């Protein structure tokens, strides 16, 4: 039987730390007026820290009267006192420490290679000091950006900033934010803030970051604009200009025409004045803005893809991925296979007579997404149809089918618009759930088919696809 006496061991080592006279290391920490000397034992430091094992064995260590002299000006006395307590007795108490001291401890633990301590402090900041981290996003991000090992805290800060961006942008320290941090944030699609507000703060940051540039734009000359353009050249292509209203574009963007690359500005103007789609700025809209109504909930695709489909419904082309301020359509879920059953009858019972309608299918094997939009529903009761061999064909000039590579695909999606409007939707009794253009895209109980036919443009390079339905959803689409 092994007996463990950790408490007495910890007590004895505490006495060695505080009262022993056989120390052989003097460590001076801090700088300027905030300095302090600590006495320690090289054998304990080497045993507990790979950093000290190397540093105290190096030839460059200073010795005075057989005493090792060591300087750590980048660690404050209060932080090093915590570190020594951790080294000697394996204890740390952060409950009464300020957020700034805890962050300094994290940086010191990383440098001194205390992996266990580092992990504990990083988790403590996230779990117990969240309020302080939120109030000091800029300071924390600027600090931890230099340390790859702090990725968990970096990600936490960036995710929280995207969730509550105004707190970050309106911070008094925002003008000093590191360029790489700001670039990373503005690239993100989940930054929950209006695009025009991002533009306003970006201009303020650029002015602060450009030497010799004053805030009064009325006093700027051509060289001043060139300097600001150089500062912001990596940021401009990341702005979703089509998400900015015409009024805000005129009042807030147009005055800075000189800092925007000519081809981008011309595309933006053409978009606002002619509704011509930009060819260069094709970033998706930011999701989850606080003042937008939630218009789409799906287990199959992300909201970005719903915005793309909404634009297709508005006859915009296949690569257009933006919405203007608010989504054009609201989608109400009326059928979900995992909830209502994946079979023809369940689909028909939930979806018959509903117009206009959208269906989504996720393939079980490939996770590809296939779908179709029908302005007349899937089994229309309308008057315009053809009848051949007990099959009814319903008319629609704006139906389409589509595919996405996965639930977040905004690059490789394909759309196939209806070619033969008189055979847009087929009604074949109970043998199918729905049928776009005689099997171009159809549901047959737990399976679906995609075929190259003459009634719709093709959405696949393959002549025929048969897949198993992992999930299927249908929605009623209404315009806002």
From TrEMBL:
Listed InterPro entries: BTB/POZ_dom, BTB_POZ_domain_cont_9, SKP1/BTB/POZ_sf, TLDc_dom
Gene3D superfamilies reported in the protein's UniProt record: Potassium Channel Kv1.1, Chain A
Positions of the TLDc domain: 299-480
Domain spans labelled BTB: 23-96
CDD domains tied to this protein: BTB_POZ_ZBTB_KLHL-like
Superkingdom: Eukaryota
Record-given protein name: Serine-enriched protein
Organism from which the protein derives: Rhizophagus irregularis (strain DAOM 197198w) (Glomus intraradices)
């Amino acid at each position: 039987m092994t007996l463990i006496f950790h408490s007495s061991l910890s007590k004895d080592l505490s006495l060695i730390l505080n009262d022993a006279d056989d120390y052989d290391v003097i460590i001076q920490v801090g700088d300027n007026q905030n300095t302090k000397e600590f006495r320690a034992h090289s054998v304990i430091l080497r045993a507990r820290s790979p950093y000290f094992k190397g540093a105290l064995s190096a030839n460059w260590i200073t010795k005075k009267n057989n005493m090792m002299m060591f300087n750590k000006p980048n660690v404050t006395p209060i932080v090093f006192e915590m570190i020594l307590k951790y080294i000697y007795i394996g204890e740390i108490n952060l409950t009464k420490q300020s957020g700034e001291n805890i962050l300094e401890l994290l940086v010191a633990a990383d440098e001194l290679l205390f992996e266990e301590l580092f992990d504990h402090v990083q988790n403590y900041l996230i779990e117990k000091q969240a309020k302080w981290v939120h109030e000091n996003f800029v300071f924390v991000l600027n600090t931890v950006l230099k340390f790859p090992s702090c990725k968990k805290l970096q990600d936490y800060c960036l995710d929280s900033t995207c969730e509550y961006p105004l707190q970050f942008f309106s911070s008094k320290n925002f003008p000093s934010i590191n360029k790489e941090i700001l670039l990373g944030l503005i690239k993100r699609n989940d930054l929950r803030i209006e695009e025009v507000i991002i533009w306003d703060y970006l201009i303020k940051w650029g002015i602060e970051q450009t030497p010799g540039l004053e805030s009064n734009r009325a006093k700027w000359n051509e060289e001043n604009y060139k300097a600001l353009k150089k500062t912001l050249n990596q940021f401009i292509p990341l702005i979703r200009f089509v998400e900015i209203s015409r009024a805000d574009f005129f009042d807030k963007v147009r005055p800075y025409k000189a800092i925007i690359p000519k081809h981008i500005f011309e595309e933006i103007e053409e978009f606002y004045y002619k509704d011509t789609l930009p060819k260069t700025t094709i970033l998706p809209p930011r999701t989850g803005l606080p003042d937008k109504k939630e218009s789409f909930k799906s287990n199959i695709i992300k909201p970005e893809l719903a915005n793309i489909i909404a634009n297709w419904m508005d006859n915009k082309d296949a690569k257009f991925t933006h919405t203007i301020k608010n989504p054009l359509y609201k989608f109400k879920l009326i059928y979900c296979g995992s909830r209502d059953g994946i079979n023809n009858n369940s689909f028909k019972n939930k979806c018959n007579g509903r117009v206009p309608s959208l269906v989504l299918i996720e393939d079980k094997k490939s996770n590809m997404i296939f779908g179709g939009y029908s302005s007349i529903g899937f089994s229309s009761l309308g008057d315009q149809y053809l009848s051949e061999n007990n099959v009814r064909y319903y008319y629609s000039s704006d139906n389409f089918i589509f595919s996405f590579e996965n639930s977040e695909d905004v690059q490789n999606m394909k759309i196939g618009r209806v070619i033969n409007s008189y055979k847009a939707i087929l009604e074949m009794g109970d043998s199918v759930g729905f049928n776009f253009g005689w099997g171009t895209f159809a549901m047959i109980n737990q399976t679906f088919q995609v075929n190259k036919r003459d009634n719709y443009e093709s959405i696949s390079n393959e002549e025929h696809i048969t897949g198993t339905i992992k999930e299927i959803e249908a929605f009623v689409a209404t315009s806002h």
